[in-house]
Amino acid sequence: MSALSEDYFRSVHHLRAERVTHTLVIEDGEGRALRVPLVVRPIAGTPYRDAISPYGFPGGRLDGLSDVSKGAVDWTRTELVSLFVRDRVSGPRCFAGGTERNEVFFIDSQRPIEFQAEARRQMRRNTRLGYVSTCAPAREASHEEREGFKEVYRQTMVRDEAQARYFFSDAYFEDMFASSVAWLVTTRAPDGGIASSGVAVASDSVLHYYLGGTADAHLSRSPAKNTVFGAMVELSLQLGLPLHLGGGVRPGDGLEQFKRSFANASSRLHTHEVICDPPVYARLSAGRDDTGFFPAYRAPRG
Questions:
Q1: Which domain holds residue 173?
Q2: Is the pTM of this model over 0.85?
């Protein structure tokens, strides 16, 4: 069986968009299993391969198994040199003993929600100016709304000097829009143009603010920081799911502080770094500085 599930990050739409190639299956002999979607990649200039989980927070499909001890698995059977897995942001995880990464933030409707005064002031200001947000299932959104999302997202990635992998193709977005658990929030400026837009997806009993952006021309009004967030909070309340806002780019940066100002709960990202073939891993990594990048042999040079 595959790692597919109804949760967005293991859905056919996301795994197809991310070009997932394989499923890692771990079974305990008693009918229980863990299934982790992977992108298996050749290691340039070698006959070897390694693997990485798709973007997002996929973890694995937990068919009775979770928090599996990595030391109890015979990794040589994968025929991989190394494996990097991004786990869920909450709930049971696929493997035990993950690496704790940056803090991520939630707005949990089961707890008191109280935005800071500055955020409330910005929301009132934008409403007064005529910024209006709507939210609808992504597959029901109009062509104009979808194209508007792609354009403001692109402008945001250019502004942020994002890595190439975050400039997704039209096919990637079409797969995302086709999901039944994806919603598109559109904020229009007073002139009717799309000022900001964001996509929320439901996965593992959490509503995730997945991708979004703001048009260059409207950046000073910060529509994504209040009108888009406000619409997503309303959606999370309707669905009865906590809203995952993500974290900052770097610990303590302005984005992290902003999200913390909205949040009433937090967690930590967890990843898993597995060396499946230690001799080959050591040989490929020889001469590399220990920068903490995994796998070391793929660390950027310079």
A1: 109-241
A2: yes
